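Re: weekly structure request thread

Next one in the queue (180 aa):
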Amino acid sequence: MNVYDFTVKAQDGSEVSLSDYRGKVLLIVNTATGCGFTPQYDDLQDLYDEHQNDGLEILDFPCNQFGEQAPGDDEEIHSFCTGRYGITFPQFSKIDVNGENAIPLYKWLTENTTFEGFDKNPMGLMMTQMLKKADKDFKNNSSVKWNFTKFLINREGEIVARFEPMTNLKKVKEKVEDLL
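Done, posted below.
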């Protein structure tokens, strides 16, 4: 199984086969418009501008599961992201990434990656403490922990890396460029 086996929902409700992205390097991101990490849209757009012509696609999946930080419908979210951050990469319908309503793509992504922990910086330590209060065993499961978790997919449709929200985007960019 690889990423091309999945179909996702576009903002207009139509089905999109991820096989449409065959041969591309994909960065799949669950996002939110009201999160402390939302400014990452700027860096993601810069990465996309720099490497779209080299075969990079960033696939944006808004998700309201973490602190209800993605309120609004698909149109409102898209309007915010294009107006505030000028995003031009594909943005899909709002989804769940964890739990019984998680879309099959995200079930596959989390079942085939592990949570490696957060960076040992103030934000990572804060996230660790916050998650530990909600789930003492959070470190031992592969669920998505927060908004702006990124999954890197190679041109063959295989998962090659998972990046937690506070991973420096320079590290993400380096891995992307290695695959391009």
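The longest strand covers residues 25-31. The mean pLDDT is 95.
Next request, please.
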